[in-house]
Design goal:
- It is a single chain.
- This protein is mostly beta strands and 121 residues long.
- It contains one helix and six strands; from the N terminus they run βββαβββ.
- It has a three-stranded antiparallel sheet, with no helix packed on it.
- About 4% of the residues have low confidence.
- It binds zinc ion (2 copies).
- One zinc ion binds next to loops.
Length: 121
């Protein structure tokens, strides 16, 4: 039993919950998932999944995610990343905190890297 994290999109497979959308019953260990099972969010294969960090960290991510908005500081772009909306263009699911965006994520408006973003508020 335990959790596995998709290294591509950050989706968390929790064996206690399973993956009802794909017919995976609650209580199914990650190891018992069919080989052709893929991440329900981004379609990554099982190989892309990593063991979840220690329980303490997992708890922190579920309850204390930093859902702050971040604004692109490049020139006059001003794009604001809103975690509750995600970034459909960048295939970022809604509910993804800015910190959890992949390092190669770019501003969908001007293409600036994450480093060019500054926290709002
Ligand atoms: Zn994924
Ligand atoms: Zn921008």
């Amino acid at each position: 039993m335990g959790k596995r994290i998709c290294s591509v999109c950050g989706y968390e497979y929790d064996s206690a919950i399973g993956d009802p959308e794909n017919g995976i019953a609650p209580g199914t260990p990650f190891e018992d998932l069919p080989e052709d099972w893929t991440c329900p969010v981004c379609g990554a294969s099982k190989e892309e999944f990593e063991a979840a960090p220690a329980a303490q960290a997992a708890e922190a991510t579920s309850s204390e995610k930093d859902m702050s908005m971040y604004q692109c500081q490049t020139g006059n772009c001003g794009y604001i990343y809103r975690p509750e909306k995600g970034d459909r263009k960048g295939k970022i699911p809604a509910g993804t905190p800015f910190d959890d965006l992949p390092d190669d994520w770019r501003c969908p408006v001007c293409g600036a890297s994450k480093k060019m973003f500054q926290k709002l508020g």
